[in-house]
C-alpha cells in the first residue's frame, strides 16, 4: 500500500511539473515591442536587416545580402518624402521610386557608376515626363505630355542645347 502511495504522489508531482512547464512555454507574446532600432542578423552574426528611426524623425528599413551589402532601402523622411531604393551588388543605387513632399511620384534608374540615366515623373502640374540622360546625367531626350494633352519630344546635344523639338 505504501508503494502505491509513493508512486501516486510521484505521478501527481510529475504531472504538476509538466503542467507548470507547459504553462510557461505557452506564454503569449508581448502585444507590443518598442525600440528606436531593430537589427536582424544571420547565423554568422552579420546584419541582414535594420529598422530604425533617425534623430530628424525619419524612419528606414534596410535589407542586406549575405555579404552585408545594402540591397534595398524603404524610408520615409521627416518631411514625409517616401522612397524605395534598390541597390546593386556594390551597394550603389540602381533604381529608386519616390513620392515627393507634394505627392508627386518619381522613378529613377542609375547606371553602375550611380549616374541617373532615366527618369519618369508625374510633375507638380500633373503631367508625365520621361527623360533619358547621358553618362554625365545630363538629359538628352525628354518626352512629356503637357497640360493641354499635347505630346512634346525634345532632344538635346551634349552641351544641353535643343537640337530638335516637336511640336
Would you give an account of this structure?
A hairpin with a 5-residue loop joins β7 and β8. The longest helix has 24 residues. The protein is mostly beta strands. Strands 1-2-3-4-5-6-7-8-9-10-11-12 form a twelve-stranded antiparallel beta sheet, with no helix packed on it. The chain folds into two domains: 65 residues, Outer Surface Protein A, domain 3 (Alpha-Beta Complex); 64 residues, Outer Surface Protein A, domain 3. The protein is 14% helix and 45% strand. The model has no long low-confidence stretch (mean pLDDT 87). The protein contains one helix and twelve strands; from the N terminus they run αββββββββββββ.
Task: Kindly report how far apart the N and C termini lie.
Answer: 108 Å
Mean pLDDT: 87
The helix content, as a percent range, equals 10-25%
The run of helices and strands is HEEEEEEEEEEEE
Q: What would you call the shape?
A: elongated
| Uncertain runs | none
CATH topology of the largest domain: Outer Surface Protein A, domain 3
Q: Which CATH-level-2 architecture of the largest domain?
A: Alpha-Beta Complex
For the record, what CATH class of the largest domain applies? Answer: Alpha Beta
Which descriptors would you attach to this protein?
167 residues, Outer Surface Protein A, domain 3, twelve-stranded antiparallel sheet, 14% helix, elongated
What's a quick, concise take on this entry?
The protein is mostly beta strands and 167 residues long. The chain has one helix at residues 2-25; strands spanning 37-41, 47-53, 59-64, 70-76, 82-87, 93-99, 105-110, 116-122, 128-133, 139-145, 151-156, 162-166. Strands 1-2-3-4-5-6-7-8-9-10-11-12 form a twelve-stranded antiparallel sheet, with no helix packed on it.
Amino acid at each position: 500500500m505504501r508503494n502505491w502511495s509513493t508512486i501516486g504522489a510521484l505521478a501527481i508531482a510529475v504531472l504538476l511539473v509538466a503542467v507548470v512547464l507547459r504553462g510557461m512555454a505557452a506564454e503569449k507574446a508581448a502585444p507590443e515591442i518598442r525600440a528606436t532600432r531593430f537589427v536582424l542578423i544571420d547565423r554568422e552574426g552579420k546584419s541582414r536587416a535594420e529598422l530604425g528611426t533617425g534623430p530628424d524623425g525619419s524612419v528606414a528599413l534596410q535589407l542586406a545580402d549575405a555579404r552585408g551589402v545594402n540591397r534595398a532601402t524603404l524610408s520615409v523622411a521627416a518631411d514625409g518624402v517616401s522612397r524605395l531604393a534598390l541597390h546593386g551588388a556594390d551597394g550603389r543605387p540602381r533604381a529608386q521610386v519616390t513620392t515627393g513632399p507634394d505627392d508627386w511620384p518619381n522613378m529613377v534608374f542609375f547606371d553602375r557608376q550611380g549616374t541617373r540615366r532615366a527618369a519618369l515623373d508625374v510633375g507638380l502640374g500633373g503631367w508625365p515626363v520621361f527623360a533619358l540622360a547621358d553618362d554625365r546625367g545630363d538629359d538628352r531626350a525628354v518626352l512629356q505630355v503637357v497640360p493641354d494633352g499635347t505630346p512634346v519630344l525634345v532632344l538635346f546635344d551634349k552641351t544641353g542645347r535643343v537640337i530638335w523639338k516637336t511640336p
